[in-house]
Amino acid sequence: MAMKPLGRHVLAEIFGCDFDLLNNMGKVEEIMVNAALEAGAEVRECVFHKFSPQGVSGVVVISESHLAIHTWPELGYAAVDVFTCGERVDPWDACRFVKNEFRAQNMTAKELKRGILLEPAHLDAVNQ
Hints:
The radius of gyration is 16 Å and the shape is globular. Helix content is 28%, strand content 39%. The protein has helices at residues 19-22, 25-38, 91-101, 120-126, and strands at residues 7-15, 43-50, 56-62, 65-72, 77-85, 106-114. It is α+β, with helices and mostly antiparallel strands. The mean pLDDT is 92. Helix 2 (25-38) runs antiparallel to helix 3 (91-101). The protein has a 6-stranded antiparallel sheet with strand order 2-3-4-5-1-6, with helices on one face.
């Protein structure tokens, strides 16, 4: 018998975004921090990096886990993942916020359940 998952991890493919937004490290960080806040998360730390000639990667560490992004401005594309633990924060709220803020034309996303703990009898089957 499986237990309730520890967390929810949404992987989002965000397409048709504004080049200038995706290539602006300050704006990407601002959008990701605000996405965390919009979802009700508690922001702890941020690390963002601007690549040459273009693109931004970054992570927002939240008490409930993290939000991460990597942008390809030349393709109008952002890969976003939002991992939240507990019941209070909805990762979908953060993903929808990011999509809207990047003026995206499309988003596809899927949710993975993380940390589904099994009873010891089931672990032998998993470890083989």
